[in-house]
Amino acid sequence: MVINTPYGNSGPRIDGYEIRSAAVAGNIPCITTVQGASAAVQGIEAGIRGDIGVRSLQELHRVIGGVER
């Protein structure tokens, strides 16, 4: 897995482009945002804990307090 995010205004982003291109060519997952990296870490941690399940959108909506129609 590659996590490649831009750093400030560091000038040309050629290195980032090459890193992402190599990841795609190697069929390696590439994450390009801090938010995406955080979500990936949370998913990996949930997988390690065995805390992954499948829910319908309707069930999830009920769980988070939505109004069922």
**Biggest sheet: strands, sense, closure?**
2 strands, parallel
Helix coverage percent of residues? 40-55%
CA radius of gyration? 18 Å
Strand order of the largest sheet: 1-2
- Can you tell me the number of structural domains? 1
H/E element string?
A: EHEHH
Terminal-residue CA separation? 41 Å
Number of helices: 3
Secondary-structure-based class equals: mainly alpha
User: Uncertain runs with pLDDT below 50, 5 residues or more?
Assistant: none
Number of strands: 2
- Shape summary: elongated
Mean pLDDT: 86
Strand content: 5-15%
Protein name: Carbamoyl phosphate synthase large subunit
Pfam family, one: MGS
What does this structure look like?
The protein is mainly alpha-helical. It has one domain. The chain has helices spanning 14-25, 34-49, 57-63; strands spanning 2-3, 30-31. The protein is elongated, with a radius of gyration of 18 Å. The N and C termini lie far apart (41 Å). The model has no long low-confidence stretch (mean pLDDT 86).
